[in-house]
Amino acid sequence: MKSQNKKKLFIIGLGIICIIFFLYYKERPGIGRAGKEYKYTDEYVQIKELPPLLDFYYYSREEWEEKIAEQEFGDTVTPAVVSWILEQTGSAQYISYDAADNSIDRAGWNEIYGKLLDLLDTEGAVRMADEVILKKDGNTLVCASGTYKFNLEKLETEPMAAVSFYIKEDRIIGVHSLKSKAALLQNVYVKKADEEKIEFLAKGETYTLPLALKDPAKTAGHVCDLIWENGQVAKVSVKEDTIQGDLIAVDEGFIEIEGYGKINRSAELPVYKTYGTVEEKDISDIVIANMSVKYVVAADKVEAVLLAEPAQLSRIRVLLLGEDGGPYHGDVCIQTATSATVVKDDGESKVPAGTLIRASEWFGTGGVTGIRITPEEENGELFLCDGTGAPLSKGYQGILELRHYPEGYAVVSELAIEQYLCSVVPSEMPSRFEKEALKAQAVCARSYAYIQLERGDYAAFGAHVDDSTNYQVYNKQDRDEKTTAAVWDTAGMVLSYEGETAEAYYFSTSAGVTGNGDAWNLTADPKYGYLHSGLVKQGGGKPDLSDEQAFAGFIAAVDASFYESAMPYFRWNAVGDYSSKEIQNKIRDILTARKERTPQDIVFLNRKKKQADSIKNFGKLQSIKVAKRSANGVVLQLKLKYKKGTVLVGNEYNIRALLGAGVTELVLADGSKKETALLPSAYTTLTQLENGTYAMSGGGYGHGIGMSQNGAGAMAAEGKTCEEILKFFFSGIELKAVPGEGGAN
I need a labelling partner for 240 at 20 to 30 A (CA). Which of 45, 68, 456, 578 fits? Predict the structure, then answer.
């Protein structure tokens, strides 16, 4: 009996000891299962921290995880772990450490890791950075100098903490220390400040910090740097130096300001809107040449931009493309029809009428980067010429600006928007059209131009648009009294949809129906709700032509009630041969180029129906068929079947380019024949014949979205007004004057 009691007491005692042992080690984060949850400490480094830190060398992160797991080291870094790492990286003979210690603390590991980086990280993949944490959002940290992916999920940090991180590309891979010795939050905008706290805007959000300021009034309404020392804000540095002027051009390394020329810019360039609601904007929100802007300057560099008032939209800058369709020209010659002023970096000079200005002579070798030529007469003209002075262009009103780049010269035409439209409308619509059609064209062109002003796609060249069909054709036809009158009769008028200027797309000729933008994947965006499908005939109507048979019947019928039924491009037939190696290579080139341009519209699928990066190993093209058609009749997707894969092609331009590559004959409704590398439209049937050839019956010319110009011409001939025409082609729109305060808010 006594022996049984002793045995029970022994078992109970052993159980108590086990419980105590378990609880003791459970509370030690470096030991046991609990240590698998990351918690920063200066006393040790966890094993789980190592794989991301080591994946700069030879093995991937996953491979390091597997190799470390095989060793069964435990949960913390020890001398044995360090010794193993040095052996794996072949650096044992080059890196020494104190192996006598039983453990490795954070400082000790940082020293060893620093030596590893010095020895093995020859490409500088890993860097150490003192960062200020603005906020933690899931597995990302928004920091002073950027947003980083972050996998140490249990890191306990407070917003506005200054931390030293190890960073590789866009990922934080480890923590050096929780309190950096010195960190900087640059170019924040201080909204409010008092003797107890400071409220500032950074990375698009407003933050408030407790901070004792001796003279808070000096910081409010200014761009400042917040300076951390030992993890706390120690100083606020106010940047008071500013300059003001219109933004002319912007690139990754510089900003060009009217009156100042090019000035270096910081890589992280915040833009703060200070009127109305104070908020952070983007550099693209600045309307080039139409917005007087303040620039905060420090150490000869633009550090931040302040928008103190809305844009006053009045000028447009047009990049004149070279003969190859690119932005650059060889030596440029410009002749002045009147006396003119030439301004360059080192001053200005007057030149008489008839002067031939040769770019290579004016730029010379003196480091001149740009010149501006301004006629002294209000409507004076400038001409692009050859070396003998023979004109190569129509006359340009306004200013011509030459810019010198390593690749050649860029030419920019700057002028008032209404002057610009006087050279767009005759280039886009024949002046023989009725006045109301020309007015509708002017309103569409103006609406489109105002949208482009705010986008600034050519900001690096100091331009908004180019002079081609990429935007609007500019100055390719002489200005005409009728088209000029249409511009001035509608001066300032744009299409408005739900209070915003509408992007008024237009095209040459419809197939008897317009599209709602689904051929460009626009239908999901409510801001394009004014684009709609409808028959281009008296009374309109909404057909369903998504079925191949229904569309074929529609194209085969030529109904005189359609506004454009008499137009040559209203109906056409084509034959395409896609069998030759030459054409198949051409199609491959088109697919490669267009996938780079519109990757979402072209999908490569291998034999297993998995996406591939290219069609390099797909073999021979075997067939082409329509995979999807819109209710308005346009082809939404083509399916190209290859021997070893499939390609799905969307977007009307991609489809037209691909089918156009093999067209051997195009016959219009009037019997005339045309050569083309681009199918007139994507409103077409596709019937396979034999030996890789296809018959196509289609209609229309252009993308088919928005206003048909020939349709508008026919409607005006029937007595329809400008407003009636526009409301026929665009749903729910109003004609409104451009707001006097401009469009950028």
Answer: 456
Q: Name the 3-class secondary structure at 86.
A: helix
C-alpha 149/C-alpha 152 separation (Å) is: 10
Question: What pLDDT does residue 217 have?
Answer: 83
Q: Residue 256: what are its φ and ψ, rounded to 5°?
A: -110, 125
Nearest to 216, CA basis, from 241, 191, 239, 240: 191
Predicted confidence at residue 101, as pLDDT, reads 66
Crossing angle (nearest 10°) for helices 709-717 and 722-729: 140
Percent of residues, the chain, with pLDDT higher than 70: 92
Q: Is residue 426, in this structure, part of any structural domain at all?
A: no
Pairing of strands 506-507, 707-708: parallel
Based on the domain organization, do 232 and 94 belong to the same domain? no
Q: Are residues 274 and 135 in the same domain?
A: no
44 with 186, same domain? no
Residue 256 lies in a domain: yes
Task: Indicate whether 174 and 265 sit together in one domain.
Answer: no
Q: Are residues 109 and 149 in the same domain?
A: no
Contact 590, 661 (CB under 8 A): yes
pLDDT for res 736:
93
Q: What is the end-to-end Cα distance of the chain in Å, rounded?
A: 93
Predicted local confidence at residue 348, as pLDDT: 85
DSSP string, 642-699: ETTEEEEEESHHHHHHHHHTTEEEEEETTS-EE--SS-S-S-B--EE-STTEEEEEE-
Strand runs labelled E in 282-391: 292-298, 301-307, 315-320, 333-336, 340-344, 347-351, 356-358, 370-375, 382-385
Helix (H) or strand (E) holding 604: strand 602-606
Give the long-range contacts of residues 490-494, CB within 8 A, separation 24 or more: 490/439, 490/442, 490/443, 490/446, 490/722, 491/418, 492/446, 492/737, 492/738, 493/443, 493/446, 493/735, 493/736, 493/737, 493/738, 494/443, 494/446, 494/447, 494/450, 494/735, 494/736, 494/737, 494/738
- Copy the structure tokens of residue 8: 């029970």
User: pLDDT band at residue 140, thresholds of 50, 70 and 90?
Assistant: confident
For the purposes of burial, counting CB atoms within 10 Å of the CB of 384, is it exposed (0-12), middle (13-18) or buried (19 or more)? buried
- The secondary structure element, H or E, covering residue 233 is strand 232-239
Query: How far is Cα 36 from Cα 46, in angstroms, rounded to an integer?
Result: 8
Residue 98 lies in a domain: yes
**Radius of gyration, CA atoms only, the chain:** 34
| Mean pLDDT of all residues in 226-253 | 88
Nearest to 595 by CA among 681, 676, 653, 682: 653
pTM check: above 0.90: no
Domain boundary residue among 257, 274, 307?
A: 307
Query: Which residue's entry shows tokens 């940290």?
Result: 141
- Choosing from 406, 438, 469, the residue where a domain stops is 406
For the stretch 639-668, pLDDT in tens is 999 999 999 999 999 999 999 999 999 999
DSSP reduced 3-state for 469 = coil
Please count the structural domains in the chain.
5
- Spell out the residues 6+ positions from residue 604 whose beta carbon is closer than 8 angstroms to its own: 595, 611, 612, 613, 614, 615, 618, 645, 646, 647
> Residue 297 pairs with which residues in a beta bridge?
302
Least confident of 82-91, 223-232, 430-439: 223-232
Residue type, 738: V
Judge whether 621 lies within some domain: yes
Residues 260 and 296 occupy one common structural domain:
yes
Q: Per residue in 178-233, pLDDT tens? A: 877 778 899 999 999 988 889 999 988 999 988 888 888 889 999 999 988 877 78
Where in the sequence is the domain holding 272, given as residue range(s)? 245-307
Residues 560 and 674 both lie in one domain: yes
Distances (CA, A) of 220 to 41, 206, 223, 274: 38, 14, 8, 12
The position carrying tokens 């002579």 is 361
Is 670 found in the same domain as 604?
A: yes
